Amino acid sequence: MNLEEKIDDYLNKPYWVIDLLPEQVPANSRGQYFKIEQYFLQASQMDILCRKFAHILMKLNCYDDMEVVHPIDGTTLNPSPEKIMEWFVESTQEKQFLYFLFEEWQAMITFSGDDLYLTVYHPSPKMLQLLHALSASEGLFLWQPPQETK
After folding, report:
1. Which residues, including other chains, have CB under 8 Å from residue 19's CB and lie 6 or more apart?
2. Residue pair 55/138 in contact by the 8 Å Cβ criterion
C-alpha cells in the first residue's frame, strides 16, 4: 500500500481528538464558542497551542517511530524536535496539513494549520493511554467525538 492509500485508509478509521476543551460544544450552546475560537486562532495563541501539540508528538516519538508527511518537504522519519516545531509554525501560517504516522501502533495523527485540535486515527489502547497522559501534561484533553457511519 502506498503512502496516499495508507493515509486514506486511516482517515476512514475511528478517531479521537486532542483539544482545548474536554468535549464537543453542543450546537445549541449558550456560550460564545466562536468568539473564543477566534481568540485562540490568533497568531500568539496558536503559537502556544502548536508548542503543546509539538511537545505531545515529540514525547510520543520516544515510544515509536514517527513518519511525518509535510506538503513541501515530503516524508521524514523521526525528524528533529526543531524541525517538528518549525513545521507546526509553518503549517499555521500557510494553513497546511501535517500527517504523523506511527507504524508500530498502526495509527495516524493529523494537524490542519487552521484548527485548534489534533485528530488521532485508529489509536491502539497503549497509544490512547500515553496520549491521555501526554495531553493532560500539556493542559489539553483527549476525547472521542461521535463517529460518522459510512
Report:
1. 116, 117, 140, 141, 142, 143
2. yes
Q: How does DSSP classify residue 136?
A: H
Please state, as a whole number, how many other Cβ atoms lie within 10 Å of the Cβ of residue 138. 16
Q: How many CB atoms lie within 10 A of CB 19?
A: 19
- Spatial separation of the C-alpha atoms in residues 111 and 95, rounded to whole Å: 10
For residue 108, give every residue at least 6 positions away whose Cβ sits within 8 Å of its Cβ, in sequence order, or none. Answer: 7, 10, 11, 99, 100, 101, 102, 120, 121, 122
Instruction: Give how far Cα 148 sits from Cα of 37, 106, 110, 138, 144, Å.
Output: 24, 21, 18, 28, 12
CB distance 77 to 101 below 8 Å: no
Cα(90)–Cα(12) distance, rounded to whole angstroms?
27
Q: Is 139 left (phi over 0), alpha (psi -120 to 50) or beta?
A: left
pLDDT tens per residue across span 98-138: 999 999 999 999 999 999 999 999 999 999 999 999 999 99
pLDDT digits (tens, 9 = 90+) for 19-58: 999 999 998 989 999 999 999 999 899 999 999 999 999 9
- The strand pairing partners of 15, in sequence order, are 121
